[in-house]
Amino acid sequence: MNARKVDQSALRVNQAFIISLIIIAFVIDSVWLVAFVGGVMLLGTAVPSLAFFKRIYRHGLKPSGLVKPAIIADNPEPHRFAQGFGGVVVTLSVLAFLTGQAFLGWALAGLVVALAALNLFLGFCAGCFLYYQFNKLGVPGFAHSPISR
Q1: pTM for this structure?
Q2: pLDDT-derived band of residue 1, with 50, 70 and 90 as boundaries?
Q3: What is the rounded distance in angstroms from the CA atom of residue 6 to the CA atom of residue 43?
Q4: pLDDT (0 to 100) of residue 2
């Protein structure tokens, strides 16, 4: 069986962009920057080759040597699920803003920042954890079990 691989550096760069841009959006009070981040997250989930922040890593940061690859045996699907779920939460955040519920909008955006930071700084992917719990329960579409390391 071929070992599946994931570049953890690409994931960390993605998380760093999500965290940074949403914090900047909060500081400058920009709903449109939050919407941009959500769009990038959802597009990267639907079409992984178009994942904008990962492309910055792959075509800029990695070749320049600013960020070194950290490739490990892992399934990419749980990470895509986590990003897609985060993208949905950011979308709900934008909808809250557009309906005049700024506090809820920032709370939802803040939740995404907190979960991305949990993964970036502590290495715990809450979305991956959920994915694997759904896999254990036999939920359709959650076909991959954790890879033994």
Answers
A1: 0.93
A2: very low
A3: 19
A4: 56
